[in-house]
Amino acid sequence: MIRRVRIWLAGLTFRTGVIVACVCVVCYAMSFLQMLLPLSVTAKGVLWTIFFGLAKTAQYTALAILGTSGYQRLKRIFVRR
Q: Which domain of life does the UniProt lineage start with (predicted)?
């Protein structure tokens, strides 16, 4: 089943991979920015765990979608600027 999911993810477009990578960045930011909210330590820990887990999931999903060629394409885009 994992193999089928990886094949399906690899078949998605480059644009989808970039969108998932952006979601990853937002989740990473939220995992740390929520520390500024006036919440209990327990709530902050739970929120950090949720957002950090979502960020890691989005990160690995983006890598599976983009693959090596997509990663190289993104790298060329950002190195030019």
A: Bacteria
